[in-house]
Each structure stands twice: as C-alpha cells, then as structure tokens.
Amino acid sequence: MTSTPQHPDLRSQLETLTTEAFRPELAEIDRMPTVEIARLMNGEDTAVPAAVAERLPEIAAAIDAVAARMRRGGRLVYAGAGTAGRLGVLDASECPPTFNTAPGQVVGLIAGGPDAMVTSVEGAEDSAGLARTDLDALALTPDDTVVGVSASGRTPYAVGAVEHARALGALTIGLACNRGSALAAAAEHGIEVVTGPELITGSTRLKAGTAQKLVLNMLSTITMIRLGKTYGNLMVDVRASNEKLRARSRRIVALATGAPDDEIERALTATDGEVKNAILALLADVDGPTAARLLEDSGGHLRAALAAAGD
Fold first, then answer.
1. Per-residue DSSP letters for 93-109?
2. Which residue, 8, 12, 84, 245, has most beta carbons within 10 Å?
C-alpha cells in the first residue's frame, strides 16, 4: 500500500509559518526529566502575554467596533476549525451564564459542526464553502461581527468565513498567530499575535491556542463591559442558574450595596432574582418595576440608571 504524498503547495506554505517551525534544540525533549519538560513548557507560556500585549491597540479598536454594533442589536460570531473553533465555541458558550446574553447573541461556529468539538471531521477546515453555508444559516446583517480564528492564518474555513461576512457588510476580525496572514488581510480588523514555534512542532493548541484564548477573553469581556454588563468589576448580569450562581448573586449585591442579608433577599425577590435590578432598587431606594423601567430607559447601564434615579 502506498501513502498519499502531502500536497506540495500546502507543505511549502506550512514551512513558511513560524507556528510550524521545527526547533532542533528540542529534538531530544522526550529524553529529559519530566520536571525539566514542565519547566521548559512553563517558560514557553510566559512569552504569550507579551505577544498579546504588542497587539493591544488593534484588539482595543476591534472591541470598540464590535460594541458599537452590538448596541444596535448585532451578534458576535466566532468561526474557526480545530482548536481555534473549539476556543470560539467555548467563549460563546460562557457568555450567557456570565453576562446573561440573549440566546444567539454570541455564537461559536466550528468547521464540521458540533461533532467537531470532540472529534476530527475530515476535510471540514479546508472548506470555505462550508463556512459560507454556516454563516448563511445565521442570516448575517451589517450589525453583526464575524471573528475568524486560525493559528496559521490560512485555514480556508476561517478565511472563507471572514471573506463572506465582509461581502455581506458585517464587521470582520481576523485573529492569527503568524505575520502576513491571509486571514488578517481579509478582515477589516487584523490581529496577528505572533507566538513563535511551538514546543511540539506544529502543535498550535499550545502557545498559539493560549494566545487565542487570551484575545477571545478580551473581545467578549471588554465588549460586555462596554455594553453595561458589569458594574465596576462585578458581574451584575450574571444568570443565577444554579445554587453556586445564586450564592454569587447575593454576594455581588452585597459588594455593590453593602446592604444586610435580609434587605438583599427582599430586593432579589422583588426583582425576580435580577442582580442588576436588585442593586438599583437598593441604591436608589426604588421598587422592582421602577428599577426595571430605569434600566430599560438606560439601555441596561446600571451607572446611567442610578444617575437617572437621582435626577
């Protein structure tokens, strides 16, 4: 039986990528003591925040653009394959419990669909057409944002998603870990966090994956701060869907107001467990319906609602 040779064009492309570079000094890493490998890997990881720091102006500009569109009702959509796709799905799935985002407000698309979260879907990442199909199912509008995520910056699914979204008038962001990437070039906002060669050659779930996670954390979290989903550094839009989160809700109200436990319980009961409303009710000394109206009139921003209550 003969093996199928690697596509020469793709092989030559990969050889130019820093994320795929071979490090001969690590050629005998498998012979090192475990603690030394761990120390080496930990040292590698410390370089990631510095690489992200170099791109903070681009990240901030992208966040401001995303927030402006989401204020108009737009959605934040991540699109990627493999590790990059999984990170996007992870970030999207954490927004509802953390920030009480509406269903479908933050979306993670992974090449190959949900099955690709736990297993490889053959050929999915190589299909720009699949990305177009997945995005068309969302009926994109100019208020939406599509973030293509790819360590190499060349993955057809991610590049195809950004190109299609941009053609439809949506805001586009391309997050890659190599300079001069096709993904960043295709997007309105290109973010290239260069993390260099991996400890294990080509294993971009390592430093590149960590960098992508850090940037996605920033994109979603700071956007939500801009949308009024926090009060200071408190998660005042947290959704209390289990006992731990209900306890956290009470603690957040206490930290924001300094009120005693019995008043906190009454305020949460009067506002159907809505943390932001309970804080407003306590700080502005208003009832539940008034708190809800003030927040609605203020676009969900607690500070603005407090100012309005004091007028």
1. HHHHHHH-PPTTSEEEE
2. 84
Question: Token match 């009120």: residue?
Answer: 259
Closest among 173, 178, 203 to 88, alpha carbons compared? 173
Round to whole Å and give the CA distance between 44 and 258.
43
> Using alpha carbons only, what angle is made at residue 242 by residues 262 and 251, rounded to the nearest 5 degrees?
35
CA dist 201 and 14 (Å) reads 11
pLDDT of residue 256 exceeding 50: yes
CA atoms within 13 A on the CB side of 156: 11
SS3 content of the chain, % helix, strand, coil (to 5): 55, 10, 35
Tokens at 240, concatenated = 């209390």
For residue 10, pLDDT over 70 is answered with no
The span from the CA of 180 to the CA of 166, in Å, is 19
Q: What residues are labeled active site?
A: 94, 125
What is the Cα–Cα distance from 303 to 161, expressed in whole angstroms? 37
Residue 235 burial class via C-beta count within 10 angstroms: exposed 0-12, middle 13-18, buried 19 and up: buried
Query: Is 14 a residue whose pLDDT tops 70?
Result: no
The closest of 155, 177, 158 to 166, measured between CA atoms, is 158
Question: Measured at the alpha carbon of residue 146, what is the angle toward residues 124 and 162, in degrees to the nearest 5?
Answer: 60
Lowest mean pLDDT: which of 6-20, 140-154, 179-193, 241-255? 6-20
What's the CA gap between 104 and 73, in Å, rounded? 11
pTM of the model: 0.89
DSSP three-state, residue 149: strand
pLDDT tens string 204-226: 999 999 999 999 999 999 999 99
